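Request: Show me your protein:
***
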Amino acid sequence: MDAPFNTQTSELLMLDYAAGNADAFTALYGMHKGPLFRFLLRQGLNKARADELFQEVWLKVINARESYQSSARFQTWLYTIARNLVIDEFRKTGKAEIVELLEEHIDITEASALDEKIDRERKNIHILSYVEALPFEQRQAFLLRYEAGLNSSDIAQITGTNQETAKSRVRYAIKQLRIKLGGSQ
């Protein structure tokens, strides 16, 4: 008897999907959709373009299902696809677009909490702008670590560097963010 989807690894789900099990893809998508979308959105893309790249990533996953090899972790493979699409996007546009977040997530029916919500959104915008201002390689490493939850080994594999370089990039990104947020170095 097969294990329930919530206890299967992403690699096994992808192999099940490659074998024709559409429910395995649904479970796989459910496991990775939130972190993957946030990873793309926090690259400095507007929501519409992040959504388009998000769909492109999943389309590539679907198209590669028959040739998928579980030689690396699924997450590493997935974020390599996403990162390559972001790099291609930046090459095409020449720069990242500004993320417009303030209009989103504000529910005016909650008048008593509106000021607090606006304050929180402004802080989030500042933090996101600081992340977006990081050098590309540091931003990528930081988001892969803290948005996607990947370890240094996976980050190194995705970015084509060694593990120490991946750790250093995350460390430098954190240092820069602390400085911008007025914390200690």
